[in-house]
TrEMBL record, chains A, B:
This is Histidine--tRNA ligase. It comes from Candidatus Doudnabacteria bacterium RIFCSPHIGHO2_01_FULL_49_9. It catalyses: tRNA(His) + L-histidine + ATP = L-histidyl-tRNA(His) + AMP + diphosphate + H(+). Pfam families: HGTP_anticodon (PF03129), tRNA-synt_His (PF13393). GO terms for molecular function: ATP binding; histidine-tRNA ligase activity.
Length: 426, 426
């Protein structure tokens, strides 16, 4: 095969060891937080009957879906998100599942999207959802869980923007938007950050909101709030204000202070019904929101035919990884703790014993398989980001000793082989 | 959508929370062992250019591969195993990768196979490979790593069958097999366990091995060995005997005693070049080998055009999970540690504080969102396999107390709310 064809498909990536390890560590830390909040894993297949996924994502989504006919003449599709399969699961196993269902799923999805600006065709979603409860505590728990996940990834500086779709809908209605244009207007407002207020005003005008309406709209959208009481007072005439105030109050009870009520927050997706939120990194605003979600009480019931309340959040792990890399917050874990060097074929038994003992103590140990010059082995250890080298030549072996070289500092210490575990474990 | 269509594709599965959690725990334990042995993760995409995968798995594999033309008119295929993508990675990044590459990958693959007998069309492979070393220590490390993974899963009773393809080839050659029939003969011998010696003899006769040859063949195949010396003596005339003896010797140095030299072990795949092994559970022989692998020095170089030695092993995680379930060795972790009950809307703030504190202490905590009868909440906890319920009614609240009910024993204890973390953590 020609060398030029050795490549991944456009929008698909390999993760070589260091990067794969960093991602695995991120997933691990996130999972710990998700489980602390009482969420449990749920796994669904990569392929579904196309019928399950079709017609759920709008015309645009339909075009981006990887779909094909399998050899059994079934029309199938690769999952496009983790939410529609969740809805299928809820309907299919309604008698087995304990409600409310609190599930997480960290898994790849596929969209044949254009690949500009760090968008990939294969990317991970990292979702938590509470299905079957309309309690606003569930909304706050999702937000708290997202926030704690970021904290677990050592991100200390982030802002949670919160809003309520009902308020946005009501404000729009008050501004005189023509019937049936609300969703379009929400999409326009969602672009506020990107295109600025002037252009949003223009586009809202095109949708039929008059000058006075636009003025009123932005006046209230740009309002600030002192406290929950202030929210209730200033938004008294709008449906959803009480919910938003309650949300804020409970967030404070969870100890979350880095929130920001932002009435301009719209979230592009049209299935949200009340609470919406997103999380941004002030130090890396160019990555946009790195987590977000909200309540969507009309979506999960699509297969069972009756509404099932649900609220969820999602961490954009690929975007987040890029942002963390830029902020130098990605910590590549040491790839292995120790390299046991191999200087003398005759000492193989000793090397194997030492390797075995260090592994038994839980250390990550690499062994250099074939005896070679020490220099070459230390270079290998360096390239693999290994912290310590255990060096045993015939002199050391004769005295049951070993030299431990700290590859970060260059310092080396001689010790009894029996002391290796204790010294390297600490 | 009609209810009947709410289903996964044939050969595809959902994993509901308990089962998903058990699998996640298995993966986690296996990863810890893989890393202790110095292996690192490597991730490749689910979709590849069809050209990369085509022609690598024989006619049968070709038929079972999920392949299609995407909207960009590219011929693509879903990965069929993790080894061919690994070979692509090795060729594509040869200047970046530190050799020997020790990588693991735990990921699903897809084969449109018939779905009898616990065979699925989407299933996980759990592979470790050492690429770029011809040291027999690498062979033993793969075997040791597989064995320790099983131990980490609390499997104490397993047998590692080992052999060397060179010996099998040489024995076959000695038996007078016609040129070009060796691979067929290996496939026949591989079925020994399933179809018995008599039928294997028949099939070998059909391949052209004469009566005397078949007799010689089975005499040596059925030979037993006392020790490594015995191997070298009895197999003196066969190429590969020295390698097998060395393999056994090093396994013993790793502390592995539950091996069995089995000259009838063939492993179906024809790409193995020397060491081969598989692991069986004597208590669940019906599941066949639950792990296996070997050395394949001619495969990884297929894209780079030069041979690159490699050895690897794979745990059949789906088969293993079924076997463990049957042996009652699957331990479903407690789904959450604690349920904080919700008896009185007025006490919400207290409940949230207690929930927050318990989570901050690292406990897995579920909170009952809406106040309800205690009975109903305890039933929920029971269904979700939760260990403790924290019960705070208005009486307890007035005294800053809480009742902790152990849901396994039914015992309940009253304590100060400030003592909850300490008591529940232990």
């Amino acid at each position: 095969m020609a060398k030029k064809n050795l490549q991944t498909l456009k929008g698909f990536r390999d993760f070589l060891p260091e990067q794969a390890l960093a991602r695995e560590e991120m997933f691990k830390k996130i999972r710990v937080v998700f489980q602390k909040y009482g969420f449990l894993p749920l796994e669904t297949p990569v392929l579904e009957y196309k019928e399950i996924l079709a017609g759920k994502y709008g015309d645009e989504g339909e075009k981006l879906m990887y779909q094909f006919r399998d050899r059994g003449e079934r029309d199938v599709a690769m999952r496009y998100d983790l939410t529609v399969p969740l809805a299928r699961v809820v309907a299919q196993y309604q008698n087995e599942l304990v409600m409310p269902l609190k599930r997480y799923q960290i898994a790849p999805v596929w969209r044949a999207d254009n690949t500009q600006k760090g968008r990939y065709r294969e990317f991970y979603q990292c979702d938590v959802d509470v299905v079957g409860s309309d309690s606003i505590i569930a909304d706050t728990e999702i937000i708290a869980c997202m926030a704690e996940s970021l904290t677990a990834l050592d991100i200390t500086d982030f802002v949670i923007r919160i809003n309520n779709r009902k308020i946005l809908d009501a404000i729009l209605k008050n501004s005189g938007i023509p019937k049936g244009k609300t969703v379009d207007a929400i999409r326009v407002i969602d672009k506020l950050e990107k295109i600025g207020e002037a252009r949003v005003r223009e586009e809202l005008a095109l949708l039929g909101i008059k000058t006075k309406g636009r003025q009123d709209l932005f006046e209230i959208l740009n309002a600030g709030f002192e406290d929950t009481n202030d929210i209730e007072v200033k938004l008294a005439e709008y449906d959803g204000a009480g919910e938003l105030a309650e949300l804020v109050e409970i967030l404070l009870e969870w100890g979350i202070k880095n929130y920001q009520v932002d009435l301009t927050l719209a979230r592009g997706l049209d299935y949200y019904t009340s609470t919406i939120f997103e999380i941004i990194l002030p130090d890396a605003p160019q990555y946009g929101s790195i987590a977000g979600g909200g309540r969507y009480d009309k979506l999960i019931g699509m297969f069972s035919g009756k509404d099932i309340p649900a609220v969820g959040g999602s961490i954009g792990i690929d975007r987040l990884a890029s942002a963390l890399e830029e902020l130098e917050l990605i910590k590549y874990d040491l790839v292995s703790d120790v390299l046991v060097c191999n200087l003398d074929e005759e000492l193989e038994e000793t090397y194997l014993r030492v390797t075995k003992d260090l592994r038994a103590a839980g250390l990550k140990v690499d062994f250099y398989y074939t005896s070679d010059k020490l220099d070459k082995q230390l270079k290998y250890a360096d390239k693999k980001n290994i912290n310590f080298a255990v060096i045993i030549g015939s002199d050391e072996a004769a005295k049951n000793e070993a030299t431990v070289k700290n590859l970060m500092t260059g310092k080396q210490v001689k010790m009894k082989q029996t002391e290796l575990v204790r010294n390297l474990k600490s």
